[in-house]
Structure formats: C-alpha cells, structure tokens
Amino acid sequence: ADCPRSPPQSLLFLGLVSAVCLGLNLLFLTVYLICLCCCRRDQEPESKRPHSCCVTWMAVTAGLICCMAVGIGFYGNSEANDGVYQLLYALDHANHTLTGIDSLVAGTVLQMQVGLEQHLARLNEVLATRGDYLQTLKFMQQLSGSIVLQLSGLPVWQGTSANLTALAGHVAYVEYYRWLAYLLFFILVLAVCLLACLGLARRSRCLLTTMLCSALLTLVLGWASMAVDTAAAVGTSDFCVAPDEFIMNQTESDISAVVVHYYLYCEQSLSNPFQQALTVFQRSLTTMQIQIQGLIQFALPLFPTAEVWGGGSRGSASPVCSPSCPDPRLLQSDLLGVQQLLNSSETSLHQLTAMLDCRGLHKDYVDALIGVCYDGVEGLLYLVLFSLLVAASFSTIICVVPRAWRLFAGRDRDYDDMDEEDPFNPQARRMAAHAPARGQLRSFCSYSSSLGSQSSLHPPAQTVSNAPVSEYMNQAVLFGGNPRYENVPLIGRGSPPPTYSPSMRATYLSVTDEHVRRPGAEFPA
C-alpha cells in the first residue's frame, strides 16, 4: 500500500501557517501599543509602585523565558547536528563498501582476463607436445571464463556510489550553514536580552529604542525559523514512515528491486541474490587450484632443470624434448604464477562475499535512519519549541518597554517638580554641577570682627542641643579630615551643628550657658 506523503503544497501550507501566526502576533502588539497610547492617563503617586513592580516582574519573567529558550535551542541544535553527522557517517561507510565491491570485482576480472590468460598461453607453448596437459589448460581457460561471466552479472554500484557521495556533500554543506545560522541566532537572542536588561537598569531610552528594533527583528526571525523547522520535521517524519519505498524509487534505474529489498530488510528468510554467482566462483577456483596442483606435481619432473617451488629435488626422469625446447624454468614460473593468482582470487572471493552480505549495508541503513528519524527529528522539535519561547519572551519584552518608558518619564517629571534651592535635591545637585561657579558670598560676620560685636548677638528662642561642641569637632575631624571653622553661631537653622574656631567656641559656650540660666526670659510662664 502506498504511504501518504506530504507534498510540497503541504509543506508550503505549514510555512503559511507560521506566517499567519507572525501576522497575528504583530497585530496584537500593534493593538496593545495603540491602546496603551490612547488610554494614557495620570496616575496617583501611590499607584506608581505597583506598576513599577509589574514592569519589573514582567521583564524578569521574559528574561528567564529567553534564557530557557536559548538553552533548549542549544540542545535541539546539537541533537539535530548529531543526527545529521550520524547520517553522513553511515553514507560514507556504505559508499566505502560499494566502492570496495566494484574494486574487487574489477580487479578479479582483470586478473582472470589478462594475468591468467598470459600464463596459460605460455604454458600451452611449453607443453605443446603433451595433449593431456593441453586439455587441462583448456579446461582452466573455460573455468576462468565462467568466473568472469559470473562476476560480470553482479550489479555495478558506481552510479549509486556517486549519488551517495553527492548526497553526503550536499547534506554536509547545508548542515554546516544551518548549525552556524542557529548559533548566530542564539547569540542575537542573548544580546537583545542583555540589551533589554541594561536599558531597564540604566533607564536609557537609547538602549531601549535599539532593543525594541532588535526585538522586532528577532521576533520575525523566530517565526521564520519555526516555519522552516516545522516543515523539515514533517517532511522528515513522512520519510521515516516508509523509507524503503523512497529508496526503491530512487534506485530502480540502477539496481534491481530484488537486490534493494534484500539490503533494506536483510531477513533470514530472504535468499542472497548473489549466492549462485559466488558459488560458481568458489567451485571454479577450487577446480582450477586442483588442476594447477596436478600440473606442478606431474609436469615439472619431466624437465630435469625445473624445481618445484618450495625446495623440491631435481627430476630424475630423462628430458622429453630436444635442446630446442623452451627453457624449463619458464614452466615452473608460469605454474607458480597461476597458483599465486588463484590464491589471490580466493582472498578476493572471501572479501567480496563479506561485502555483498546484507548485514553490513543494512546496519548502515539502520544507523542512517536512527540519525535522521530520532536525533534529527527530536532536534527539530526542540528548535520549534525554542522559536515559540523566543516569540513569547520578546512579545513580553516589547509590551514591557512602553510601560517602562512611561515610568521613566513620570520620574523625570517628579524630579523637575522639586525645589531647585533644596540642597538635598538630586536634580539641584545635577544642575549645580553644570552651572557656572557663583561668587563667594561674604559671611554674616567676618572672622576679624571684634569679640564685643560677637557677644552682642543673641540667639533666637529655639531649643539648643546640649551636646558639647568638642563632640561635633571630633566628628568633623573623623569624617572630614580637618575641622571646618565657622565664624557665626548658626543656631536654629535646622542643619547639623557646625564646627567652630577656638575663639568662637568660647563665645558659643558663654552664650549657651547664659541662655540656659534664664529660661524664663525667653519663655514666660
């Protein structure tokens, strides 16, 4: 039965769904910002703190969601990358196996058609006087032709190998730039989140404006990445449902369906489609080895100058040919050459049998499916979740920025409403730092004024601290380094007591004592 697959129209539909979600998200943000601007009203001072806490907690929540999204994105990107590289490793191993099969077949055919034929042709010349030996050589030529015929019936994997190489290169190229793009996207998300934190902490409108533009760009990129990841996950899942049909359709022009089915399923009940060719190859090699061993055993003793390979004794039989016969050593070298060639072909036969077995290529097939259908799809799903969390976090940040902007404007108005003459007003201190230096004002009474004029000053009727003046002077030394001396007792001005000069200290003490002795004069009953 045919398995339903997602046509390109379905994948395009998924992309359009993500585009619609992006449009709805932007529409929601636009309506929210318009409502926030239209419904702007003055707030009472006591209601500012709850709104400030709301903005703070919304920003903290958005930052936590953003960090969690980046963590999930890193994990998903790593899983997808691992799955793709497992697929590439399986493709490379399968390609190596197929290339090895073609190489073994080509090498064995070349040995049989060229190397063995040359040795048999020279042996025909040497043993031309013996008809029984010539029949043996002719039989070996027939067996060699049978081996070549069986090997020629094996499938040629060159086209499939080239397709796997091209596929692996294309997948590796796309995966590298996909992984790099997501890595840069993660860095962008973290940078925008950090920019939002700095803008809110420093109350910088410039940073918040930059962050707002970057957040809109990141929001669009998040929905776009979700569209791509969703389409890729759905398409890959459809492939994983019935991968054998897809592979059969791709290889039906090069490889027969029986061979493809054998490698895809690799069941014990399935017969090896190459078993007959390998069996004929094995039997032919065995028969040829028996024939060449007989020639070595019976033909070499006929030539007294020929020695068996491995250290045999010289033949005792009389020569059977005239002195014009070919060199007997040529017979020995050709027979031993044929024997070595057959041994090499037997080794190639064992290697070819192992490579043509379904277990090796089937394992590569299963590894590729695990990499794509498990790790790859899992990574794509985590990347989809990352995109959704990014969209939620940056939508929250975009909603927080206008409220934070209003709070900053309200606080600036509060600073502007303060008294500029108040020395404890931060706004006044900032203005004083940029204002030109004023001229030094003369003190109420200069330091060189006479003691009589100083004593003529009477303090106003206010409560005077009984703390000793020496304590204030000691505190001034501790906190100011050197004592600061005043010329006039500024009593009752509501500021911390000043530090006095030695002459002014005595005057201040006498005035204070006199004021304490006569409380009735200032406060009549």
List the helices and strands and how they pair.
Blueprint (H helix, E strand, L loop, with lengths): L7 H31 L9 H79 L4 H22 L5 H45 L2 H37 L1 H9 L5 H9 L9 H24 L29 H29 L1 H59 L9 H9 L16 H5 L13 H12 L4 E2 L12 E2 L1 H16 L1 H4 L3
Parallel strand pairs: 1-2
Helix pairs in contact: 1-5, 1-10, 2-3, 2-4, 2-9, 2-10, 3-8, 4-5, 5-10, 6-7, 7-10, 8-9
How would you describe what is shown here?
One of its GO terms (cellular component) is plasma membrane. Its main location: membrane. Probable chloride channel. The protein has 525 residues and is an all-alpha fold. The protein has a domain at 56-303 and 327-412. 74% of the residues lie in helices and 1% in strands. The chain contains 15 helices and two strands. A two-stranded parallel sheet has the order 1-2. The longest helix is centred in the N-terminal third of the chain and has 79 residues, at 48-126.
